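Mods, move this if it's the wrong board.
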Amino acid sequence: MKEIVKYSHCFVCGDKHEHGLKAKFYFDGTKAITEIVASKEFEGYRGIYHGGIISSLLDEVMIKAILAQDKYVVTAEMTVRFVAPVRVGERVRLTGEIIKNKGRIFHAIGEAKGPDGQVYATATGKYIEARPELKEILMQIDD
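Not the wrong board. C-alpha cells:
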C-alpha cells in the first residue's frame, strides 16, 4: 500500500501538528485506509471518544481516497451516522472510497470499524475539485 500525500500541519494527518491526530493514510488501489487508537486526549463523555473527532477522521479518509487520484478537493457536504460509541483505548480502522465522479464533483463513502467488525460510524460526502487558484494553495503540502 502507498502512503497518501499529507500536509504536515493538518490536524488529522499532519506529523508536525502539536495537538493533532497524526493519522497516516494509505491507498490500496481502491480505498483510503487509516487506523488509530482512540486516545483519552480526545475524549467526549467519560471513556467515550469524541464524535467530532470521528467525523474529522471520516472526512479526511474520504478526501484521501480522492487525493490518491491526484485530485485536490474541498468538502462541500458531509453526513455522518453514528452507530455505536468508540471507547477510549479502542483501535479504529477507517476506510474511504469514491463511489461517483461527475466533472468536478466527487461522492465518497466512509466507514469506521473496530477490530471485531463493529461499525462505529458511516459517512457520505460530496467534494468539489478545487479551481486552479485554490488548487495552487492546496498543493503547498509543506512549509
